[in-house]
Design brief:
By secondary structure, the chain is α+β, with helices and mostly antiparallel strands. It has a single domain (14-99), classed as Orthogonal Bundle (Arc Repressor Mutant, subunit A), CATH 1.10.10.10. The protein is 69% helix and 13% strand. The termini are far apart.
Length: 109
């Protein structure tokens, strides 16, 4: 029975990590940003246009995503490009897309 307490501790650690990611994604603007980034790297101007978010809101939400380690940044001259930092988050976003996006539901068998 001692090994199941180790399993519980591993599960607790994994649940803590998952909860932290879900808490960051539990904001509509951050979730929309991550959905756009799941399609590939984008610069701030592209994200602003795609999501119709004003610069202060966009910068704030990208800062939260950066702080949580969910996005990578790459500077190209004056432009900063963002991409998804964790393949597990891409898998999570793909699952959310299949469950909640109407066109994905229509495509499901």
């Amino acid at each position: 029975m001692h090994s199941s307490s180790l399993d519980i501790e591993s599960m607790r650690a994994a649940a803590g990590e998952a909860t932290a990611i879900l808490a960051v994604l539990a904001n509509i603007n951050r979730l929309l940003l991550m959905c756009q980034l799941s399609q590939g790297e984008k610069c701030v101007g592209e994200l602003e246009e795609l999501l119709d978010l004003h610069q202060p809101t966009l910068s704030q939400q990208l800062g939260v995503l950066r702080g949580a380690g969910l996005v990578n940044t790459r500077r190209d001259g004056k432009k900063i490009h963002y991409s998804v930092a964790d393949a597990r988050v891409l898998t999570l976003l793909g699952t959310l897309y299949q469950l909640y996006c109407p066109q994905a539901r229509d495509e499901m068998p």
